[in-house]
Amino acid sequence: MIKVADLAWVRFTAPDLDEMERFLLEFGMVRAERTDEALYMRGSDPDAWIHETRLGEPGFAGLAFDVDSESDLEAATQIDGASAIELVTEPGGGRRVRMTDPDGVPVELVHGRAPAESIPMQSTLPLNVQGATPRVGARQVVPKGPAQVKRLGHVVVVSGDFATTSAWYEANLGFLRSDEMVLGDPDNVVLVFFRCDRGSRPADHHTFLCVGVGEPGFEHAAFEVHDIDAVMAGHDHLKGAGRDHLMGIGRHFLGGQVFDYWKDPWGHTVEHFTDGDLFDDSHKPERHEPQVVLGTHWGSAARES
Ligand SMILES: [Fe+2]
């Protein structure tokens, strides 16, 4: 069975690449490549790119996952409706298999991308927290400007056929369930937090979230930043740039991340997060009521628009 290792990228379409690039720079990404038709943006981790915008009507255009081996790619060609193995001609190259999920969302599985050089993370000095005092004799300095994005962390999609779609991801991509949401009846699961099965290596609490309530389609994509100061300073930067804030700052109950949600210029939701929970393959899923799933330890969970 294929077990995807992580998210690779997300694809969008939009009618103005200049405007998307301005927003994503303010959001904390860096340009990887720009052509007449497409904009590729990256974070500071070595992934060659994590966000593509292609010229077109605004919309979500799909997501990709990394797999650990060429044999996983070969196995992926056996999934119903999958393509043959193809070369990726975009930054970093690699090989891929294309397919669509039961809702028609384009999904790619990718292997063999060439790593880009990491970009050094700007950081605060060590924090005097939890009883430790590593910072003595120095004033704290928080870097001003965008929250430097490290990597793509998770994607959330609302399915028009939740049972079929969640089963498709579980069966074909080898996801484990981290947590589930039930509605009304304790057996009526309508939302699943999926994480990658990396065996004893820890994985994010959720890499893909499949939702069975709401308007079908893309819900949000989340990008990890360095620390809580980066979330806070990045919030000030986006606010100062007049960008459209949606929700936060807060800390989720499920997943544990400190979060801050924004809208891109065409209304796609993108999230900054940091300090999320990590689990290996021993964690067993639990079922929760909506107030737990939507709840926070602190901070706002209410949407501002
Ligand atoms: Fe999220």
Description of the molecule:
It contains five helices and 20 strands. The model has no long low-confidence stretch (mean pLDDT 96). A hairpin with a 3-residue loop joins β2 and β3 (38-42). The chain has 305 residues and is α+β, with helices and mostly antiparallel strands. It has a ten-stranded mixed beta sheet with strand order 19-10-11-13-9-14-17-16-15-20. An eight-stranded mixed beta sheet has the order 2-3-4-1-5-8-7-6, covered by helices on one side. It has helices spanning 17-27, 70-76, 162-173, 228-240, 290-293; strands at 6-14, 30-34, 38-42, 51-55, 59-66, 86-87, 95-100, 106-111, 149-158, 176-182, 189-195, 203-204, 208-211, 217-225, 244-252, 258-263, 269-274, 278-279, 286-288, 296-299. It has one domain (6-115, 147-299): Roll (2,3-Dihydroxybiphenyl 1,2-Dioxygenase, domain 1). Fe (ii) ion binds at residues 154, 156, 220, 222, 271.
Question: What percent of residues adopt helix (DSSP H or I)?
Answer: 10-25%
Overall, the morphology is: globular
| Strand count | 20
Rg from alpha-carbon coordinates:
19 Å
The fourth-level CATH homologous superfamily is 2,3-Dihydroxybiphenyl 1,2-Dioxygenase, domain 1
> Bound compounds, please?
fe (ii) ion
Beta fraction of the residues? 35-45%
CATH topology: 2,3-Dihydroxybiphenyl 1,2-Dioxygenase, domain 1
Instruction: Return the structural class.
Output: alpha+beta
Q: Spans with pLDDT under 50 lasting ≥5 residues?
A: none
Order of helices and strands: EHEEEEHEEEEHEEEEEHEEEEEHE
Number of folding domains? 1
Largest sheet: 10 strands, mixed
CATH class reads Alpha Beta
End-to-end separation in angstroms reads 42 Å
